[in-house]
Write a structure and sequence with these properties.
The complex is a heterodimer of chains A (112) and B (111).
Chain A: E1 4-7, E2 10-14, E3 19-25, E4 32-38, E5 45-51, E6 56-59, E7 62-67, E8 72-77, E9 86-92, E10 101-102, E11 106-111
Parallel strand pairs in A: 2-11
Antiparallel strand pairs in A: 1-3, 3-8, 4-5, 4-9, 6-7, 7-8, 9-10, 9-11
Chain B: E1 4-7, E2 10-13, E3 19-25, E4 31-37, E5 43-50, E6 53-57, E7 64-70, E8 73-78, E9 87-94, E10 100-102, E11 106-110
Parallel strand pairs in B: 2-11
Antiparallel strand pairs in B: 1-3, 3-8, 4-5, 4-9, 5-6, 7-8, 9-10, 9-11
The chains are: A mainly beta (112), B mainly beta (111).
């Protein structure tokens, strides 16, 4: 079955810096890669996703890149703000298949 | 107008008790899930239902029994609660193209 690894487990940056979180997956059939943000005590919320027919997707300060050959994908946050502080999860699945496999999470701390 | 709701939000109970958590979604999705998030924040799928039919049943003790009376509801019943069951349990529902929406979570504490 699918296995998703996520790094780093914690990431501390200064406000205004960029943050990059990386994930690798094992199942070459996976073609849907969402990213979730979970603030303390809250539910995970989808912030961006990418499908395997594209290599990059951007939404304001957030971008995701996908390298299907290497089986890895990354989340990039530019101009970080304190409100970006949260745990971020990557996940992988095949569209139409019901199971999302999550990475182990990255705790991002943005200091003012 | 909450999309995915769960009750209760907090549940404190003693070992050996039986408890239930309820989940409802008003998004019209066909697929619903139960996840367990432990103290290390790992999110692990437990069960999934599609149109009231069980489609995913991970390696979960049979003390855990999901029930879906209709496609908008998915409940989780836990028998003989153990200390290791303490966690946050999230319900989620999924669109046809894969986006999952989570409920607010139920923090279960077993003493």
């Amino acid at each position: 079955g699918e296995n998703v690894e996520q790094h780093p487990s914690t990431l501390s940056v200064q406000e205004g810096d960029s943050a990059v979180i990386k994930c690798t997956y094992s199942d070459s059939a996976s073609n849907y890669f969402p990213w979730y943000k979970q603030e303390l005590g809250k539910r995970p919320q989808l912030i961006i996703d990418i499908r395997s027919n594209v290599g990059e997707k951007k939404d304001q300060r957030i971008a995701v890149t996908l390298n299907k050959t290497a089986k890895h994908f990354s989340l990039h946050i530019t101009e970080t703000q304190p409100e970006d502080s949260a745990v971020y999860f990557c996940a992988a699945s095949t569209i139409g298949f019901q199971k999302l496999v999550f990475g182990t999470g990255t705790r991002l701390l943005v200091s003012p | 107008d909450t999309a995915v709701s769960q009750t209760p939000k907090y549940l404190v109970t003693q070992m050996g008790n039986d408890k239930s958590i309820k989940c409802e979604q008003n998004l019209g999705h066909d697929t619903m899930y139960w996840y367990k998030q432990d103290s290390k924040k790992f999110l692990k799928i437990m069960f999934s239902y599609n149109n009231k039919e069980l489609i995913i049943n991970e390696t979960v003790p049979n003390r855990f029994s999901p029930k879906s009376p209709d496609k908008a509801h998915l409940n989780l019943h836990i028998n003989s609660l153990e200390l290791g069951d303490s966690a946050v349990y999230f319900c989620a529902s999924k669109t046809g193209v894969g986006e999952q929406y989570f409920g607010p979570g139920t923090r279960l504490t077993v003493t």
